[in-house]
Amino acid sequence: MARSQRTQAVLAKAIDMKQQALSRRLSGQTSFTIDELGKIAVALDVPLAALVGEAVA
């Protein structure tokens, strides 16, 4: 979000989510679904892998 200079409110609107719900997910209180991560990746114009990182073996 910082790289794209977007606030939580702007990102939440872009992915059709309430800002409070996005805040809970970003703070770790609630987990993201894969669909939500996909929408965020599209909104931020980054690959999904950039959001989830590499799997640890």
**Mean pLDDT value:** 88
Count of alpha and pi helical runs: 4
- Secondary structure: number of strands: 0
Q: How would you describe the shape? A: globular
Alpha-carbon distance between the two ends: 28 Å
Query: Which radius of gyration do the C-alpha atoms yield?
Result: 11 Å
What string gives the helices and strands in order?
A: HHHH
**Largest beta sheet, briefly?**
none
How big a fraction of the residues is strand? under 5%
Q: How much helix, percentage-wise, in residues? A: 40-55%
Which residue ranges are poorly predicted, with pLDDT under 50 across at least 5 consecutive positions? none
Task: Label the structural class.
Answer: mainly alpha
Description:
The radius of gyration is 11 Å and the shape is globular. It starts with 7 loop residues before the first helix and ends in a 5-residue tail after the last helix. It is built from four helices and no strands. Helix 1 packs across helix 2 (19-26). The chain has helices at 8-14, 19-26, 34-44, 48-52. By secondary structure, it is an all-alpha fold. Helices cover 54% and strands 0% of the residues.
